[in-house]
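User: Can you write out an input/output pair for a complex, sequences first and structure second?

Assistant: Here is one pair. Inputs:
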Amino acid sequence: MTEDPLYREIILDHWQDPQNYGVLEDSDFDEGDSNPACGDHIRMTGKVDGSVLSDIAFTAEGCAICVASASLLTERVKGMPLADIKILSKDWILSELGASLSPSRIKCALLAYYVLKRL
Amino acid sequence: MKNYKADFPIFADHPDLVYLDSAATAQKPQVVIDAVNRLYTHANANIHRGMYDLSQDATDQFEAVRGKVAKFIGAASPDEIVFTSGTTESINMIAYGWARQNLKRGDIIVLTDMEHHANIVPWQILRSEIGVELYFIPLGDDYRLDYRQAAGLDMSRVKLITLTHASNVLGTVNPIAEIAEYFKSNGADFKLAVDIAQSVPHLPVNVQDWDADFVSFSSHKMCGPSGVGVLQSKRDLLEKMTPLLSGGHMIDRVTRDSFTLAGAPDRLEPGTRNIEGTIGLGAAIDYLQGVGMEALEKYERSLTSYALKKFQGNKNVRLFGPATSHDRLAVFSFEIPGVHSHDAADILNRSHVAVRAGHHCAQPLMQCMGVAGTTRASLYLYNTKADIDALFDSISGVQQIMRAAK
């Protein structure tokens, strides 16, 4: 079966088995955001060790695009220096998803990214 | 059965379109488009002002719609009809213009768990401003209101019941008269406000049946243009309401020091109304009456029965709404287990099946049902059984793509 142009293997894998899913206790960072258009919600908790994001987790009520992008993003930034996270471009997550997203789905894809940017 | 689809030019422009989002907005028949065009081409002038023939013609056409609306919903007279921008503005007018002046701390406003945000948020604002209490009638069996749960309320404090005639999520049609009678017989003395935005496009509605004090609806869900709505109320209430907006047309006389308000309904229609939209609403009412609301309801019920059978025969889809077609609109909220509603809607769109996904401006209802959102297919007279078949064909595609259990 050929891969679906939007729901690529990588998105379905992370949707069905999201990485870093949950809530960290004693976190240094605890932020959430919603997409008012659809009511989707993401919460991220993180721990900072010096200048490094030592641990990160998320929970979400969201679609496959939203959950997969949060999962991919947490994998990417866990252990990353905060300075590098600050300059992480949203293009990274969009290209990682590798799908052509309509404007409304780009919002789903970037919900986690914008929560993380509050770090 | 006549093919109503042919009356709606969007389907000629998009021959593959399976439009299942009429609870959000209805498509427009050619006669409505023509009416708007005709006004602009032949009779455009501001109303209620000009001393010339063209303005008088536009005014006459505009005012004729007031009469049409009154007849269509069984109002006592055209003076009971206030043109607004839509249901949201109509309900805000009740909250701002009547409730704020007439309710006080400790009074109870009764709502339901199936309200649209438009009939929740204005009351929450009022609660924070003047300290009224809100009571939500819960859902009972088969997604219908269990209003007897209100038995424990202090009925002497119930001053307003404001509820929807039909749910935009569940399709449930509520027994308004029965609910009002229940509160009355338990000693409550209240005003009754009914949101008929979802029901009036689909069922014969007569506001006299409920002795309602306020009725709100929108043009765009009943084949008319958007940006036009109606607040219907009794003359004595309208005469005392505080205008939400003020300015031109709604006054009798203005001096540097003061102003006096015009009588109803003018005092509640400031500025220039949506003239072409109102003319379009008039054409929409003519169109619906030409079809016949009884015939329309009967046709839609046949679609509802057909769709319910399909839902009930598909174990991979969970339907949120009454299981039978009586007192029920052709609105079907559902969940494909393991698939988020956005993903479902996105994939359905590939087959040109247009549905809505998410919370449908009814987040408290989503919370009651324990879901973040649903996918919703809502039908109108231009839909056919073939559209329902197309929906179910596409649903199996969704399950395949999203690797949902089959």
